[in-house]
Amino acid sequence: MAWTKYQLFLAGLMLVTGSINTLSAKWADNFVAQGCGGSKEHSFQHPFLQAVGMFLGEFSCLAAFYLLRCRAARHPDSSMDPQQPFNPLLFLPPALCDMTGTSIMYVALNMTSASSFQMLRGAVIIFTGLFSVAFLGRRLALSQWLGILATIAGLVVVGLADLLSKHDDQHKLSEVITGDLLIIMAQIIVSIQMVLEEKFVYKHNVHPLRAVGTEGLFGFVILSLLLVPMYYIPASSFSGNPRGTLEDALDAFCQVGRKPLIALALLGNISSIAFFNFAGISVTKELSATTRMVLDSLRTIVIWALSLALGWEAFHALQILGFFILLTGTALYNGLHRPLLTRLSRGRPPAEEGEHERLLGASRTAINDAS
């Protein structure tokens, strides 16, 4: 069945905004400007402040939810209301996981390339699968176990490509290795978030936009308050500001004032995460969770191609191999091979009606994505 113009628009919106989300964050990291008090020029390395902006983008999904709710008042839509009462504090544990994982990933993005960052986020499949077996009592199919093994192999190849690539003064080998490990560590936390969301949140049939927006509210408020103690906590080599503290929000605002293009990059990051979440949820509703996973994989190609075109990283052939192995792992885990096998065996496209979001498909990407 051919896609409608609206469905094509949603697919394009998800692909574009998902790519902008990672690229705008990396663009901000590449800026160099003076900070407060006449300090010398230095890179814009403010991962926790960027994470606050990301949560602000998620928080804006609440506005979209209430707009849809007003529309549903005129055209009743049962999906806009939970089937049973729920406590908003249920969102707090996954929001804390989201806050921690996202902050770690922003730190890692300062240390490695945008394409490797996006590819290594595929590690979420490994830990989500294992945690779903341990805590949700799921039984994984053989194809899902093969998908996990393929993902592990793909991560090894991508990591090897980073080790063999040429590194400049901005990304030294030790920093790249640390960044890659931090990304994988963050995926463990993101996997815990996904399991918590499925176990405690989505069983209440909470609308996804409301779930994203509420978690964004918690993350925005908590992380904004944490910026105050972070201003005084020493961070040695992990700090990118002249004061050597965990985060210096004042220094960030001074750099933005001296180079306004940084504000444009931050705005792109904030707005893209909001539209990406909305588009992702809409794609799942209008098309399928499988389509959403395919589009999410395609944005890795877009990010990689643009990073090469902009000169942000050097080409390495191993990344191609690593990407295709990771793509195979994602396809196997999420059952993307089944429609193809059905088409080949029956000679007609399989029905996708009633396809629901899987554990991975139900979540968003923090710089996402997360997902």
Key descriptive features of the protein:
single chain, 371 residues, mainly alpha, two-stranded antiparallel sheet, 2 strands, 67% helix, SLC35_F1/F2/F6, transport, transmembrane transporter activity
Quick overview:
With 371 residues, the protein is an all-alpha fold. The protein has helices at residues 5-29, 47-59, 61-74, 92-109, 114-120, 124-135, 142-164, 173-201, 208-230, 249-258, 261-286, 289-309, 317-333, 337-346; strands spanning 32-33, 42-43.
Lay out the secondary structure.
Blueprint: H1 5-29, E1 32-33, E2 42-43, H2 47-59, H3 61-74, H4 92-109, H5 114-120, H6 124-135, H7 142-164, H8 173-201, H9 208-230, H10 249-258, H11 261-286, H12 289-309, H13 317-333, H14 337-346
Antiparallel strand pairs: 1-2
Determine Rg (CA atoms, Å). Answer: 20 Å
Helix content: 55-70%
Order of helices and strands: HEEHHHHHHHHHHHHH
Number of helices: 14
Question: Could you name the ranges where pLDDT drops below 50 across 5 or more consecutive residues?
Answer: 349-358, 361-368
| Distance between the amino and carboxyl termini | 28 Å
Which range does the strand content fall in?
Answer: under 5%
- pLDDT averaged over residues: 83
Strand neighbour order, sheet with most strands = 1-2
**Major pleated sheet:** 2 strands, antiparallel
- How many β-strands, per DSSP? 2
Q: Give the structural class.
A: mainly alpha
Q: What characteristic shape results from the CA principal axes?
A: globular
